[in-house]
Design brief:
CATH architecture of the largest domain in chain B: Orthogonal Bundle
Number of helices of chain A: 6
Structural class of chain A: mainly alpha
CATH class of chain A: Mainly Alpha
Strand order of the largest sheet of chain B: 2-1-3-4-5
Helix content of chain B: 55-70%
Strand content of chain B: 5-15%
Number of strands of chain A: 0
Helix content of chain A: over 70%
Radius of gyration of chain B: 32 Å
Oligomer: heterodimer
Number of strands of chain B: 12
Chain lengths: 124, 670
């Protein structure tokens, strides 16, 4: 917990949520946290790619849904900043517009990178 | 006594009955003053019923090229009676798709009934011995007695089904008679009789299962339909079993089908075609009537599976776990997670629904940790199915889901009776709170925002738990009341039975037989059929009593009753009137026919040697026979006439039967 690397992900990940998830697993299901982490690390990149593609071809419906789903997953895994970004994307897409999504997408991609590092560190 | 028991079942009001339109039509037909056109118009008022009826009417060969499009046309082609019977059968399915008996599998009941109906229709078309439409209806309704008993006595029947199952009709019938004094075969045929189906058909329903075990006289009117039903039963049940059978069983089932084919005198290819048609039509009808149908194995499949089993010589592993027979509707997780933890509160069965796998996992884990039993689904359709199958106390569902969202799921659940009692908790996103009124309008009980705080979730659930527990208390009170009412009914019936039975001889007593006579009198007038009675009086009874004592007198009475009961035939109603008098009612009998019966009874009594330590001897009786005549104003006149005939027998020398008409010839006062 005092590792230097930890600070890089420090912003991106809410450790209280991680601890809650550990507690939730408890003794009966110690692998719960890692199962969820695994699900997230598989799912999230797909959602981000989906946002990219649907932004490119103007498919706002798919965009909205992908952002919505990613928003939930981030909240669940303890990545509040990323979740917030997704919420903004979702709100814009809901108005059937794509204005301003591009920069948000970049921010999301960057933030995801940090989340990914932090999550992978949990395993070490 | 079965008829009486059935009448009492009717009084409970719980017997399955066809809904409004058909009930009206049945009443209309009984009154004879309505035209076929009026009846057709009444049926047309129910559009769903009309559609199904026309489908059935048009599936006969000639109609396919020129289908009927209105009920009136169908009526002209098939006849009013047939159309009504079809309407009856079809409407009963929709009205009784579920019920109160917990172990009665309503889905499987109607599924097999439908298979039987389709099989019977096609076989009838093949044999051409009975009308196909009627065969369909009878195939559909032949087991309705079981449904009836499950409706009137859900708890007792639940216990019975748990004990013996319903695979073997004979065993089930025996247990039913012990518990209810009537079995499903009788209930079923009385119900069909009540609804106006002709006697030869209702009789067929009673006997078809036993073809092969008992002899059905060839010229009996029920025989053709019974044979069709028997084939339909064997064919449909064999093919249904075959779909789920192991390879070992496949060999036996293939043999059974072969046996059936030869019995039906059909070549392999047409028989195969018949099976395929039945399988196909079963699925079609299932969709129309909303009855689950699965896969019916074809003849080829059964045969090849059987051959493979024989070639392998070993038992093949059974296929799969729970095959979903009615088609997939999306991924379904049916894991049930049980947990030992209990924090004092009752364990609930909860259905968790979310299309996001992570959220679903979190939800499931949170609930399980709190000690509840959780099942999961990842979409609304699957959730609906699971809810119907597993009856959860609580449903927690995400609002936003593709195809069927949380609100739609809630609305669908609330539409069915069971679903109204479920506690529905909605998971909402942070932006959706201003729409929450919409959710409550849809029937949602409470909501939790995502991502949810486990403590908040538990608090909401606790509230739900209280509601559930209250509901369950109300429900168990209601069940107890119903049970007491049913028990009261049973007890009343047993008491009444006792009050209508003569203690010494165990024959029905005067009260019973006079009521019976009243009823028979009415029937005889209505149907213009003959009615006769035989009065029986033991000879020298007073002398026996005085000489040997009352114990011997009682013995003589008991013995006489025993002999009379043994010799009296089906249809002849015997009772003890009191003292040393007995009576036999002979419906549908002329004086001459009753006289033959009287002679039979007289001879049997005379032949019987009464033996006891204090008395040994032969007893004789004097009998008087009278038939209803036009000048008799009531059944009392009939009894009086028979009485006088007894007097005639006594004065004529005793130990003989005397008929009223012979008295009149001697010009004795009437």
């Amino acid at each position: 917990m005092t590792d230097n690397h930890e600070n890089e992900g420090g912003d991106a990940l809410d450790m209280r949520v991680i601890q809650d998830l550990r507690d939730l697993g408890g003794e009966d299901d110690p692998g719960l946290l890692f199962e969820l982490v695994g699900m997230f690390l598989t799912d999230a990149p797909q959602r981000i790619r989906e946002i990219e593609t649907s932004l490119a071809n103007g498919d706002v419906k798919t965009l909205e849904r992908a952002a919505h789903t990613l928003k939930s997953s981030c909240a669940n895994i303890g990545a509040p900043k990323l979740s917030e970004i997704c919420k903004k994307i979702e709100e814009i897409a809901r108005t059937r517009s794509t204005d301003g999504i591009a920069p948000l997408l970049s921010a999301a991609q960057g933030n995801y990178g940090q989340v990914e590092i932090a999550l992978k560190q949990l395993a070490s | 006594m079965f008829r009486q028991t059935f009448e009492e079942l009717k009084l409970t009001g719980q017997l399955p009955s066809p809904p409004g339109v058909v009930m009206r039509v049945l009443k209309m037909s009984q009154s004879d003053s309505h035209s076929a056109e009026e009846i057709s118009q009444t049926i047309m008022a129910d559009s769903a019923l009309t559609g199904r009826l026309l489908k059935l009417a048009n599936s006969a060969g000639s109609a396919v090229a020129n289908p009927a499009t209105t009920v009136s046309e169908a009526t002209m082609r098939l006849g009013v009676r047939t159309v009504m019977n079809v309407a009856l059968g079809l409407s009963l399915v929709s009205a009784n798709r579920s019920g109160r008996c917990s172990t009665f599998d309503y889905d499987r009941y109607w599924s097999t009934a439908l298979a039987r109906a389709v099989a019977a229709q096609n076989i009838a078309r093949q044999f051409r011995t009975v009308p196909a439409a009627e065969a369909y209806v009878l195939g559909l309704l032949s087991e309705i007695g079981k449904l009836a008993l499950a409706s009137v006595y859900p708890e007792e029947y639940s216990v019975i089904l748990g004990r013996v199952g319903d695979e073997d009709g004979v065993v089930l019938a025996r247990v039913e008679r012990e518990e209810f004094e009537i079995d499903h075969g009788d209930v079923g045929s009385y119900m069909l009789e009540d609804w106006g189906l002709p006697a030869n058909f209702t009789q067929a329903v009673q006997v078809y299962e036993q073809i092969g075990r008992i002899e059905i006289p060839e010229n009996s009117e029920a025989a053709p339909m019974a044979r069709v039903l028997n084939c339909a039963h064997r064919l449909s049940s064999t093919c249904l079993k075959a779909s789920a059978a192991s390879m070992e069983d496949a060999v036996e089932l293939a043999a059974r089908l072969e046996e059936l084919r030869t019995m039906m005198n059909m070549e392999p290819e047409p028989f195969s075609q018949l099976c395929r048609t039945i399988g196909r039509e079963w699925t079609e009808w299932g969709a129309i009537l909303d009855v689950p149908t699965g896969k019916m194995a074809t003849l080829e499949e059964i045969r090849s599976r059987g051959e493979a089993a024989q070639a392998l010589g070993v038992r093949a592993p059974n296929s799969g776990g729970n095959q979903d027979a009615s088609g997939d509707q999306g991924p379904v997780h049916a894991e049930v997670v049980h947990h030992g933890h209990e924090d004092g509160s009752k364990q609930m069965r909860i259905l968790a629904v979310d299309d996001d796998p992570m959220s679903l996992k979190l939800l499931e884990r949170t609930l399980t940790k709190a000690g509840h039993s959780v099942i999961t689904a990842s979409n609304g359709e699957a959730a609906l199915k699971l809810a119907l199958e597993q009856s959860p106390h609580i449903v927690i569902a995400d609002w936003m889901m593709p195809q069927m969202d949380g609100l739609q799921l809630c609305q669908s659940l609330r539409r069915i009776e069971y679903g109204r009692n479920i506690f529905f908790l909605l998971l909402t996103g942070r932006g959706e709170e201003d729409r929450i009124v919409e959710a409550f309008d849809a029937g949602v009980d409470d909501y939790v925002t995502k991502p949810f705080n486990p403590r908040v979730m538990m608090a909401r659930l606790k509230g739900g738990q209280r509601v559930i527990e209250l509901q369950e208390r109300v429900e168990s009170d209601r069940k107890m009341i119903l049970k007491q009412v049913a028990e009261l009914g049973l007890m009343t019936r047993k008491l009444r039975s006792a009050a209508l039975t003569d203690v010494l001889t165990e024959l029905p007593n005067r009260r019973y037989i006079m009521k019976r006579l009243e009823s028979d009198w009415g029937t005889s007038l209505r149907t213009n059929s003959p009615l006769s009675v035989v009065m029986i009086d033991i000879d020298h009874f007073k002398k026996v009593n005085d000489t040997y004592g009352h114990d011997v007198g009682d013995l003589v009475l008991k013995e006489t009753a025993r002999v009379l009961r043994a010799v009296a035939r089906q249809g002849e109603e015997l009772a003890r009137l009191g003292g040393e008098e007995f009576i036999v009612i002979c419906p549908n009998s002329t004086e001459a026919q009753a006289a033959i019966a009287a002679e039979r009874l007289r001879a049997a009594v005379e032949r019987n040697l009464v033996k006891s330590p204090m008395f040994e001897g032969r007893v004789t009786v004097s009998l008087g026979v009278a038939q209803r005549t036009a000048d008799m104003t009531s059944q009392d006149a009939l009894v009086k006439a028979a009485d006088e005939a007894v007097y005639g027998a006594k004065t004529g020398g005793r130990n003989r039967a005397c008929v009223v008409s012979s008295l009149q010839r001697k010009a004795l006062p009437a």
